[in-house]
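As agreed, record passed on underneath.
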Amino acid sequence: MGLSKALWGYGFRPFFLAAGALAAVLIPWWAGVFAWGLPLGTSWPPALWHGHEMLFGFIGAAIAGFLLTAVPSWTGERGFAGWPLMSLAAAWVLGRLAVATASLWPLPAVAALDLLFFPGLMILVSRPLLRARNRNTPLLAVLAALWATDIGFYWGLLHSDPALSRHALFVGIDIVLLLITVVGGRIVPAFTSVALKHGSDPVRSSQALTRLAIAAMLTVVIVDLWRPESRVAGIVAAAVAVIHAFRLAQWRGLRTLRAPIVWVLHAGYLWLAIGFALKAIALLTGLPFAAFYLHAFTIGAATTMIMAVMTRASLGHTGRPLIVARPTVCAYVLLTAATAVRVFGAAWLPLPYLSVVLLAATLWTAAFVLFLAVYAPILFSPRVDGKPG
């Protein structure tokens, strides 16, 4: 199996590679735009471009890589490979190119190209989910809702309403956090239990608390849709922070510190609880140290979980031992540091705000350069055990 054939042998391969590469490009580009006014290929407000591409480009690719790998495992059907995978990847690339050169084309044409990706993903994964009547089928509704926020984003641009586009991005982030709540609530305790080998202090996962956490996150989506950044949103955030903290506590994260491939999952979920606590403080008190809570969600929770899943799945699904190399552990640490700097640096570091942004961007970029250095060869290479995929 050649390198190119290996790349199209399973769903995680092209999309994890795409997510890592885009992450390593977008943040330095955004830092240059923010600090030195580097040009964009679009007339959109730069912050909206940044938010859109991180959500629908980077996170979108990571979600695709996860679902295209998980759905065959959930349903027992053959993995996605070959031309369907190539077609979906082409749709994602077309969307990124359209946005990157948006000033050259009519906005409806850019939107039409960019909006192809999520329906394509839903078509691919819906067939095996529906055939198997799998319990994860409701995730299709989550994908549809995320796609709807992208439509809302373009609707705002088309009607010269940047506030609507910004609102759509925030609701889209909430939907990603809902996805983390559902998926993280399964994989974090499961992988922790395996790592701890069911010791004397077992990993528990209360079903009542799971249902409460999902219901709470649905409430967040609804409140942020209708009453964003309100006092009600702050009260809901405070309750959700407590729920996530209790949920995380039952998973025995402190016992995983010698297993980086496991503790990074706990770190990602911890940022979810921290983010909602900061959101509550920001909306209810206005204290400045909590002002950047959004980055606790986007870098801390979403990106840390993405890094954790990409590194683990790329090893396991290529027949390699689930032991991360030292550069990967460094990437975990760098990403955690990037989150802390971006969330708390403006209030707690003796640095100008611009320096805080550039430092966080440097740490982020270093983390993904390390990821690509380790995992690009793995993603391009056949399985080490000779099996297909």
Notes: The chain has 14 helices and no strands. The domain at 3-380 is CATH 1.20.210.10 (Cytochrome C Oxidase; Chain A).
